[in-house]
Amino acid sequence: MSTVRLTIDNIPVEVEAGTTILQAAGKAGIHIPTLCYLEGINEIGACRVCVVEVEGARNLMASCVAPVAEGMVVKTNSPRVRTARRLNVELLLSNHKMECPTCIRNLNCELQSLAQELGIRQVRFEGKKGEYPIDDSTPAIIREPDKCILCRRCVAVCEKVQGVKAIAPMGRGFDTVIAPAFQDKLLDIACVECGQCTLVCPVGALYEKDYTNEVWAALADPEKFVVVQTAPATRVSIGQEFGLPPGSINTGQMVAALRRLGFDRVFDTDFTADLTIMEEGSEFIERFTKGGPLPLITSCSPGWIKFMEHFYPEFIPNVSTCKSPQQMFGAVAKTFYAQKAGIDPAKMVVVSIMPCTAKKFECQRPEMRDSGYQDVDYVLTTRELARMIREAGIDFRNLPEEQYDDPLGESTGAAVIFGATGGVMEAALRTAYELITGKTLPALDFNDVRGLTGIKEATVDIEGTKVRVAVAHSLGHARQLLERVKAGEQYHFIEIMCCPGGCIGGGGQPIPTNTEIREQRIKGIYQADVEMPIRKSHENPSIHALYREFLGKPLSETSHHILHTHYTPRGKY
Amino acid sequence: METCQCEAKWEELDKIIAAHRGRPADLIEVLHQAQELIGYLPRQVQVAIADGLGVSLTEVYSVISFYHHFTVKPKGKYQISVCKGTACYVKGSPEILERLEKELGIKAGDSTDDGKFSLEVVRCLGACGLGPVMTVNKRAHGLLKPDTAVAVLAQYQ
User: Fold this and answer.
1) In terms of CB atoms within 10 Å, which end of chain A has fewer, N or C?
2) What is the distance between the alpha carbons of residues A22 and A24, in angstroms, rounded to a whole number?
3) Range of the domain at B55
4) Is A170–B43 a contact, with Cβ atoms under 8 angstroms apart?
């Protein structure tokens, strides 16, 4: 690989040919502000915030797309550069719907920080403001085009990472709006509500629908018995909202915070993750040994499920009929637990803390009412939980560690790894191996299915029988994997997670969520696994009790009634 | 779903799409041909093109909405184009457009309910000396005033 030498702000730098000026500056420890840039995903030089001066060049260059050249002399902090950057940001602000103090992204907005960083104290231009209506048609995602700065990060993520292409620029020039075709409502199109757009939106133009007010009201209602469940991935991300390093494990503090917020019982989705393994593992063994549609494909991720219903309905027979752990929890809480605790399920409110926006859609599906009530009432993202904790004045960082309540709070290491890509597969293999062979697994870690590689494959030898598995995360990779299957590639078991990195990279997670942060959270997840006293789902004593007292055995009639579901083709348009 | 006046031409549309099946890069060319055939690009046509070429409906509509040439509404029998290029603009074309909008009861970009007239704005017709200029079905009418512009419409009935 040939290298190129240049100087940036008088610092000599040597980098590989083809590197951008922005990357070269980063290597030299020089910070260039960016706005529309999203590494590897949106590199289009649209916002002109990253402009730099290159000696001999007539115009300023967008450093995020301009490649380095031999002998180049770059200035990143000249008067001309500063003036241009300020002007560009001022122009963005001139037609921005500036509601900063009441905006959902207040204090976590890249446009706001940039205005501060560049020292903008006035906006000299009064631009015409947009007049596009807010689209709050879905239960999960809100589009507010008047706050959009047309950076196109959401478009790039939706197209390149997720392969969904739900939104794109419509119209041209000043009237451009990022929207679905015909400016249809998000509810009416093939949007999977994964919320990856809300993670990358630098401003408040795309965000989750906030249900904190509904939850506050339930908590304040003495008639209601409010139960909360926490998804595996939230325990390694909530800390980031309170200034802790990404990936730090704050399970105990989160439980303590939820108790202080007033929840009557603090339970864990990890419990029903173990339950999912019992049901889905049994489903796999049955299909594998007695014959049934293979590959079996996991069903935990509601973004993936909606994607499949829109784009790959031919795979409906392959997808596990198991409800997701969140929905299993709601159904078990309002039946088994309500009976056991002597609580009227009509007065029970089930709240979920999820890394996910698509879960908000999932809980409102009409088929998710097998308890006789809506099984899960409200879904809050990690971000919304953090908002409630802040509003309540709880000092999260200094909370003592507390334990989940019994019995729906007991779980294993196999459950916590559901939060990372490959985790469901690994948890299922730990159980399937032991149930099929009746022997103890020699090694618990299935490293082939871990990590951020887009599509992972492994062959597992279960006493002479080779089980071929594959794992995909992000819908772009899911699409590639499904095309392989359609082309004749044989697998027995496939895990698909909608979001990059799995749930730890979900659309409801703290902002920012980038590759580095995803890696930190994955580390946290596997650390949490190792720290658990029990690491296999079928060894969870509370799960045994649930089967003994209520369900009978996996795939029993009761199980089928409350823990399993069906899917509906939705069409692409 | 809206009705389109394209059923009779569907077979021909299918042929156009078939010639470019699975080739997303041909989108603009296919849109040109489809609009030439049908006169406009209603939703069903866009869906058929999206499916045929293997692109999303969002991309199809994004391209259509970017180029003024493409239209998703049927054009009137008489297509009025009012020039708002610099020369026509300073010589008063905004007043002409405003008067025509009032007279026809439509905004630029729309067609009258009886399907007779559609109105659009264009940038420079290359007849600046005659400004302000408008064309009706490609025939130019120059040196207009709001009243004379309305009078011109009487020729097209």
Assistant:
1) N
2) 5
3) 7-66
4) no
Domains of chain A: 3-93 (3.10.20.740), 213-563 (3.40.50.1780)
Assess if residue B71 is contained within a domain: no
- Answer for the pair B67, B61: CB distance below 8 angstroms, yes or no: no
**Contact present, A241 and A510 (Cβ < 8 Å):** yes
DSSP string, B57-115: HHHHHHHHHH-TT--SSPPPSEEEEEE-SHHHHHTTHHHHHHHHHHHHT--TT-B-TTS
Nearest CA of chain B to the CA of A8: how many Å?
Answer: 39
Strand positions, DSSP E, A162-314: 168-170, 177-179, 206-208, 225-230, 265-268, 296-297
Q: Given this model, what pLDDT does residue B3 score? A: 58
Complex prediction ipTM: 0.90
Domain end among B29, B44, B66: B66
CA distances from B113 to A522, B75, B76 (A): 60, 11, 9
| In A156-259, beta strands by DSSP E | 168-170, 177-179, 206-208, 225-230
* Catalytic sites of A, residue numbers: 280, 283, 300, 320, 359, 362, 367, 503
B67-112: per-residue pLDDT in tens?
A: 888 999 888 899 999 999 999 999 999 999 999 999 999 999 888 9
* Within a domain: B73: no
In the beta sheet, which residues pair with residue A208? A141
Contact (CB, 8 A) for A231 and A356: yes
A496 closest CA partner among A509, A511, A485, A508: A485
Mean pLDDT by 10 residues, chain A (573 residues): 94 97 97 97 97 97 98 98 98 96 97 97 92 96 97 98 97 93 96 98 98 98 98 98 98 98 98 98 94 96 98 98 98 98 98 98 98 98 98 98 98 98 98 94 94 97 92 98 98 98 98 98 98 98 98 97 97 88
Gap between the Cα atoms of A535 and A430, Å rounded: 9
Torsion of CA B52, B57, B58, B64, to 10 degrees: 80
How far is residue B62's CA from residue B78's CA, in Å, rounded to a whole number?
27
A343-A348-A353-A357 Cα dihedral, nearest 10 degrees:
150
> Do the Cβ atoms of A181 and B66 come within 8 Å?
no
A-chain residues within 8 Å CB-CB of B59? 165, 168
One domain, residues B96 and B52: no
Within a domain: residue B72?
A: no
Residue A326 contacts residue A355 (beta carbons within 8 Å)? no
CB pairs under 8 A between A and B: 33
Q: Phi-psi region for residue A520, left (φ > 0), alpha (ψ -120 to 50) or beta?
A: alpha
Strand partners, A495: A471
Instruction: Return the CATH number at B132.
Output: 3.40.30.10
**Does pLDDT of B1 surpass 80?**
no
Would you call A168 and B58 a contact, using CB atoms and an 8 Å cutoff? yes
Please state the domain count of chain B.
Answer: 2
Per-residue tokens: A196:
């990856």
